[in-house]
Specification:
By secondary structure, the protein is mostly beta strands. The chain has one domain: AttH-like domain (AttH-like fold). The chain has 3 helices and 24 strands. The strands form 3 sheets. Strands 1, 2, 5, 6, 7, 8, 9, 10, 11, 12, 13 and 14 form a 12-stranded antiparallel β-sheet that branches. Strands 15, 16, 17, 18, 19, 20, 21, 22, 23 and 24 form a 10-stranded antiparallel β-sheet that branches.
Length: 372
C-alpha cells in the first residue's frame, strides 16, 4: 500500500497546479454574500436538529459537509501536499439518535481517492461559490431565494431526512465575526439559530427545530502564514435553544497543549444581534468512556453566568460518538442534549480531542494514506 501511495504521489505531483488560498482578514462575515464556498483551508456547513414525527417519535440529528483545500506549505515528506490534491476535496458526517431508546447511528463520506470503503467513498461533490448549495453524493444543503435552508442526508439509505427549514429569526454573527485566535486558528462564523422544520424522516412527516452553522478560514491541521490556522485545534462546543427565548453558542478552543486558548458565549435574543460573554463558569461533572475508542467524554456540564443564569446540560444518551476515522483520522462526540436550570431547552454538544491520538497533528494525513 505504501509503495502504491508514493508512486501515486509522484505522478500527481508532476502535473498538479498549485494555487493560492484566501488569507484571513479581520472582518464580519455577511450571511447573504458569504453563504457560498470560499477558497479557505477548511470550510463547513453544519446542522443539528430535534425532530418529532406525527406518531410522536422523537429524534435528534447532526449533519455536516466539509470543503478542504490543502495549504501550499503542507508537506508529506519532501512532497507538497497541495500539489498532490490541488483541488478541493469534500467529506461529511451524518448521525441520527432515537431519543426514546437511545439508538445512535452515524456515517461518513469522502471524496479522497485513497478511501477504499464503497459506503464511504463518493466521487460526486461540489460547492457553489455564488450561493449556499453544497452536495456530497446525495447529501445536500442549500439556502434558497426565499431564505429557507434545506438538507437531505441518510445513513447509507437509512434514517433519511429531507427537510425545509424556515428561519424564525435573523442569522447571527458570533463574537468579532470569527471564533478562535491566531494561536488556535480563526474561523469566520455565523449561524441561523432557530429554523422551523417541515419535511420528512424516512418518508414520515416531521416537525422540529434546527440550528445551522457556517464556518471557514484556517483550522483543522492546517498552517498558513497569516496566523489564521492551527496544527492542533480541539474544542468543546455547544448550541442551545432555550425556552426563555435565548439561543446560546458556547465555545472553548484549545491550543497545542490542550489548554483553553479562547472561550466565549454568544447569546442571541432573536433580533439578529448577539451578546458576547467572556466571564462565565463552564465545568464538566460526569464522563462517559467509549468502548470503541477509549475516549473519555464529559457528557454533563454546569454553566453559570453573571446574570444569575445556572444551567445543567446533559447528553440525552451517552453513546453519541461519531465514527470518523476514514475522513478525519479520529472519532469525536456529537450529541443531542437537554438543558435544565433557571430555564429549560434543547441543544447539541460537540467535543474533540478526547480520544488518545485524536489531534489532527498526530497524523494529519492518516485519512489520505489509509482510508477505510
Amino acid at each position: 500500500m505504501k509503495l502504491r501511495f508514493m508512486v501515486l504521489l509522484m505522478l500527481l505531483t508532476a502535473c498538479a497546479p498549485v494555487r493560492q488560498l484566501e488569507g484571513f482578514v479581520e472582518r464580519k462575515p455577511d450571511p447573504v454574500t458569504d453563504q457560498g464556498a470560499h477558497r479557505s483551508a477548511v470550510e463547513w456547513w453544519y446542522m443539528n436538529g430535534h425532530l418529532e414525527t406525527g406518531s410522536g417519535a422523537k429524534k435528534g440529528f447532526a449533519a455536516a459537509i466539509f470543503q478542504v483545500y490543502i495549504p501550499e506549505d503542507s508537506k508529506i515528506g519532501l512532497i507538497s501536499a497541495a500539489s498532490i490534491l490541488p483541488q478541493a476535496f469534500y467529506f461529511g458526517h451524518y448521525s441520527l439518535l432515537d431519543k426514546a431508546v437511545g439508538t445512535f447511528s452515524s456515517s461518513e463520506r469522502s471524496t479522497l481517492p485513497f478511501v477504499k470503503n464503497p459506503k464511504i467513498r463518493v466521487t460526486d461533490a461540489a460547492a457553489s461559490e455564488t450561493r449556499m448549495d453544497v452536495h456530497l453524493g446525495d447529501w445536500r444543503m442549500t439556502r434558497e431565494q426565499n431564505g429557507h435552508y434545506t438538507v437531505q442526508a441518510s445513513n447509507n439509505g437509512q434514517d433519511a431526512i429531507d427537510l425545509d427549514l424556515e428561519p424564525l429569526r435573523p442569522e447571527v454573527i458570533h463574537g468579532p465575526g470569527w471564533s478562535g485566535n491566531t494561536e488556535t486558528g480563526r474561523m469566520y462564523y455565523y449561524s441561523a439559530t432557530r429554523l422551523k422544520v417541515t419535511g420528512t424522516l424516512n418518508g414520515e412527516a416531521v416537525t422540529g427545530i434546527v440550528w445551522f452553522d457556517h464556518q471557514w478560514g484556517g483550522g483543522i491541521g492546517a498552517q498558513v502564514g497569516d496566523g489564521s490556522a492551527s496544527f492542533n485545534p480541539n474544542w468543546d462546543w455547544m448550541s442551545l435553544q432555550l425556552e426563555d427565548g435565548r439561543d446560546m453558542m458556547i465555545y472553548v478552543v484549545k491550543n497545542a497543549k490542550n489548554e483553553p486558548s479562547d472561550r466565549f458565549i454568544s447569546t442571541s435574543n432573536g433580533d439578529g444581534t448577539s451578546t458576547e460573554i467572556r466571564n462565565f463558569r463552564f465545568q464538566p461533572w460526569d464522563t462517559w468512556t467509549s468502548p470503541a475508542t477509549g475516549g473519555k467524554y464529559p457528557t454533563k456540564w454546569s454553566l453559570r453566568l453573571e446574570d444569575g443564569t445556572i444551567l445543567t446540560i446533559r447528553a440525552i444518551t451517552d453513546n453519541q460518538e461519531i465514527e470518523a476515522r476514514a475522513t478525519t483520522g479520529f472519532n469525536y462526540y456529537e450529541g443531542a442534549v437537554t438543558v435544565t436550570g433557571t430555564t429549560r431547552g434543547v441543544g447539541y454538544m460537540e467535543l474533540t480531542g478526547y480520544v488518545k491520538g485524536s489531534s489532527p497533528l498526530t497524523n494529519p494525513w492518516k485519512a489520505l494514506q489509509g482510508g477505510r
